[in-house]
Design a protein that fits this description.
Layout lengths: L1 H24 L4 H28 L2 H4 L5 H5 L4 H7 L11 H8 L7 H13 L1 H22 L5 H15 L3
Length: 169
């Protein structure tokens, strides 16, 4: 998926590089460097997914930024991609056709359409799917780091995994 490659080349590579260099500069053995790099990569993906979810789910007072910036600019973030994915068999989701119509535009500059798309997307199962993806990436980071000794640095990393999933700004 193109979206995931972009996330991996952007945020995940930055976080993975920071983790790798930190481990290298600390003199960690090669297997520890590899685990920290992989865990940091997964955490970087999770962080970006969290950011994309917050762009839809948060209110400006809560997050400190205008919600729906990606929608306004026509950026197809993970929640949007889930909403545009072929529907699973079964009953249709209320407002699904209208949401697809709005999301198919190249940006939502009209304030009323932007607000409508944001409200429909917030209530759409696509948000749950995006949150599940976020948890999977955070869990992947946690799994990688779990193979390291139980020291305060590992616990700090686990706290970051929780933070990325639970953050509101």
């Amino acid at each position: 998926m193109h979206y995931l490659r972009v996330v991996e080349d952007k945020t995940a590579s930055l976080i993975a590089t920071a983790g790798r260099f930190g481990a290298l500069f600390a003199g960690a053995p090669a297997d520890v460097v590899a685990r920290i790099t992989a865990a940091s990569h997964a955490l970087g993906v999770a962080f970006q997914l969290s950011d994309d979810i917050l762009d839809v789910a948060s209110e400006s007072a809560q997050s400190g930024k205008a919600p729906g910036t990606d929608l306004r600019e026509g950026v197809r973030s993970l929640p949007v991609l889930h909403a545009l994915a072929p529907a699973a068999p079964g009953p249709s989701v209320a407002g699904d056709a209208r949401l697809r119509e709005l999301l198919s535009q190249d940006g939502l500059t009209d304030d009323a359409e932007h607000a409508e798309a944001l409200a429909l997307l917030r209530a759409h199962p696509a948000m749950d799917a995006a949150r599940a993806d976020l948890r999977r990436w955070s869990d992947a980071a946690r799994t990688e780091i779990a193979g390291l000794p139980d020291i305060p640095a590992r616990r700090a990393f686990e706290i970051m995994c929780d933070f990325v999933v639970e953050r509101t700004s």
